Amino acid sequence: MEKRVVFQSRWLPYALLAPQLAVTLVFFFWPASQALYWSLLIQDAFAARTQFVWFDNFRDLFNDPHYIASFQVTAVFSILVTVIGLTIALLLAVFADRVIRGARLYKTLLIWPYAVAAAVAAVLWVFLLNPTLGVLTHLLRALGYDWNYLLNARQALILIVITAVWKQISYNFLFFLAGLQSVPKSLIEAAAIDGAGPARRFWTIVFPMLSPTTFFLLVVNIVYAFFDTFAIVDAATSGGPVQATAILVFKVYQDGVQALDLGGSAAQSVVLMVVVIALTVAQFRFVERKVQY
Amino acid sequence: MVEQRPLGAVVNHLVLIAGVAIVALPLYVGFVASTLSFDQVTSVPMQMTPGTHLVENYEAVLLHGSTAASKAPVGQMMWNSLVMALAIAIGKITISMLSAFAIVYFRFPLRKTCFWLIFVTLMLPVEVRILPTYKVVAELGMVDTYAGLTLPLIASATATFLFRQFFLTVPEELAEAARIDGAGPMRFFIDILLPLSRTSIAALFVIMFIYGWNQYLWPLLVTTREEMYTVVIGIKRMVAGGDALIEWQYVMATAMLALLPPAVVVLLMQRWFVKGLVDTEK
């Protein structure tokens, strides 16, 4: 779509674009190209000597069991966050859609976690599940379940999954609710007249009609779990115990900022860039094809 | 709804109340902890009703910071967060409105190139290119400055895209009429386009304010002096020490203070918030 009516000026459009282009070039293209370049170098910690090594960093990366392990942790983490998060949000949205009185109040009470910073959310949950003081830890102990996420790898993963799901519930809930409200009421009424009960109506009409929303949320949640959960991991577990929760974005930071392995970290950045681009392309492809019945 | 079953309504409300309660649990426990004394917080099990140290704890963190870990007052950190959130929100809206205006309302050489240069930034979150960006900022001498804190996050295509989509829906007749009346492009922009964009601006402002306030990784790298910490970083520094040293009543008071401004923005501007969420994702 293009405008027919346009303004004429030799310099004005460039002046209008200048601020955004300047910021984009300096803080986006320059660093991104640096990352690409660094990923082909080996540098010692004090940047005294650098050596061009072609794709050695990438080869080392995929031969590194820690990196493969980090890939696996990230995969498990993002599947759990996506599946659990979407299930809970869909459940709440279905019930909120059926409620007549107080619907707005429920909505208000469910959307505020979106406003909470990921790191703050992590600290709140760490406090609830703290091995010595946590209120929930105490409850779990009373039930005979020993909880200590500082020692137990599986429990550390559970902690970050809970936090990530909690933080993303508002977002998923709002989109599911909007999706549900756009399902034509006449279809549901017709099914009800034909004798279909609530469960049957949901699985045969509502759920298929929701598929564009579900697919959209699927991609958004995977991207969220891959990239936006750095703060949760760093504030809750710092990747521990023994790297059990070191997801890929956390490892980029850990290897680059803490271990000063610039080449390795840059190579990881490049791998992540490829992942994001693939996800974005997948999203555009499918959104255009409109997943629906 | 199709059929009215009294029992069904009760079940609906019960499920929703359970959901709301689970979602609110960390907030409630955090709030209770922020009103207790150190001895009360560290006694197991912790009491579940608010204590009497609310004013004392909040005053302590706002003016003096925590005593064990980070000694910077949280009041200062809140100010830093506010500056950062406002600068990012206003900066993003300003530069992206201008560039969207140029792309939609002008024809000029390299227009497509400019558009694509901006568009590809959609694909790469800060987390991915964090180290080289840090290096650039360090070379420019912007570590520990508000400029270093905000400028790299202002570069994003989402807002430009949103305004472009919106400008394309503005009726052609308006620009035509403005031209016939002899109004220049900037006059048209300020008198017609800007007032028409009010709801888009409000929606975007809510989203970007929250985004800016809640930033974590970038301020963690770029602030090294305590007086430049944002409140989110301040909390992280407070819990970074050993378990025994953490003064949870202060940490929780700070957490409550950190989540209050964005939560208030979301709740008061709920309509624009929902619009903003939907707009920025399409």
Shape-level CATH architecture of the largest domain in chain B? Orthogonal Bundle
Q: How many strands in all of chain B? A: 0
Instruction: Count up the domains of chain A.
Output: 2
What would CATH call the homologous superfamily of the largest domain in chain A? MetI-like
Supply Rg of chain A: 24 Å
- Helical percentage of chain B: over 70%
CATH superfamily of the largest domain in chain B: MetI-like
Low-confidence stretches of chain B: none
CATH level-1 class of the largest domain in chain B = Mainly Alpha
**Secondary-structure element order of chain A, N to C:** HEEHHHHHHHHHHHH
Q: Strands across the major sheet of chain A, in which order?
A: 1-2
Largest interface between protein chains, with number of residues from each side: A-B, 98 and 103 residues
What structural class results from the helix and strand content of chain A?
A: mainly alpha
Question: What gap, in angstroms, lies between the N and C termini of chain B?
Answer: 30 Å
Please give the radius of gyration of chain B in angstroms: 24 Å
Structural features, described:
The complex is a heterodimer of chains A (293) and B (282). Chain A has 293 residues and is mainly α. Chain A has two domains: 12-52, no CATH class; 58-289, MetI-like (MetI-like fold, Orthogonal Bundle), CATH 1.10.3720.10. Chain A has 13 helices and two strands, in the order αββαααααααααααα. Chain A has helices spanning 12-38, 56-63, 65-98, 103-111, 118-128, 135-142, 153-181, 185-193, 198-209, 211-227, 230-236, 248-258, 262-289, and strands at 41-43, 50-52. Chain A has a two-stranded antiparallel ribbon. Chain A is globular, with a radius of gyration of 24 Å. Chain B has 282 residues and is mostly helical. Chain B has two domains: 6-56, no CATH class; 74-281, Orthogonal Bundle (MetI-like fold). Chain B has helices spanning 6-33, 38-42, 54-64, 74-105, 111-119, 130-139, 146-154, 158-169, 172-180, 185-196, 198-213, 217-222, 231-239, 248-268, 270-281. In chain B, helix 4 packs parallel to helix 7, helix 11 crosses helix 15 and helix 13 (231-239) packs antiparallel against helix 14. The longest helix of chain B is centred in the first third of the chain and has 32 residues, at 74-105. The two termini of chain B are 30 Å apart. The mean pLDDT of chain B is 86. The interface between A and B is large, with 98 and 103 residues.
